[in-house]
Amino acid sequence: MPGVSGPVIRPTRVRVAACANNRYVNPRGHRFEGALSVSSVISSLAVDYVIPGDDPGRESFSVGARLAHEDNDSSVSDSATLTARHTIESAGWTQSRFIELLHETSEVGEEDTVATLLMPGVTFDRVQADDLFKTRRGYRVFAEGRAAADALLSTTDLLSFSARVKGIYRFGEGGRVTGRTDLGTLFLANIDDLPASLRFFAGGDNSVRGYAWKSLGPKDADGDVRGGKHLLTGSLEYEHPVFGDDWWAGAFIDAGNAFDSSDFEVRYGYGGGARWYSPVGRLRLDLAFPDDREQDDWRIHFSLGADL
User: Would you say domain 51-305 falls under CATH 3.40.50.11810?
Assistant: First the structure.
């Protein structure tokens, strides 16, 4: 918040999640999956009905629905999504072809946007690692492309591409280095026609730490972050075991921003923290400092999940 004179502890988000799965709907292997997530930033309810393909270990078809509410430092949005998806694994890649119908009402700064988009798209995901839980050497590549046309049940024309690349390398029994980059670009006439969930923002646990979730990007005439047409962020982190192989200390530097064609202003976040390989996943607690101290002198970031 503006005018803060001292440090402020601001966890990025506190989340409670619950899942309900029925893995034997019928003898043909159909299954039902449901998930509810509630947090101070994003709350959502998602349901999916999954049908195995000819090779159930490699192929599946699914239809699903999702309701979401998001309230962050830059925008407030409510969305409803219907999705049909075909997922297949081949040659180390997981490919997912989908068609998504999104209706979203969002408020970004002083602007209200009501948008409906029918978007076919495709994702590619590849993970190579010696150990997915405690990775010594490995990488992950994820890419997505989607499109919408004003002539086909959509309120605007859109072409969107995004990608994330992350790699990990450990030096023998010593420390390890993790690198990550996120890229994205949008082709459309007017960013104000696009709902908040499809615009690019930076900041947060897995972006530029030291800044709040989705708090970085181009600003409107009132100084509110409105999101950008492009995204470029990167991170370099070194971690070292301190107690056995479950407790680690780390130091990092993050950089990047969301931007339009000619206003790329790199923001930096740096700091360090502790990591613990708990029985339910890797816990990460970081103290991060932004290069711009106008709003916060520092932030605490907390996350739980696999290395890749």
Answer: no
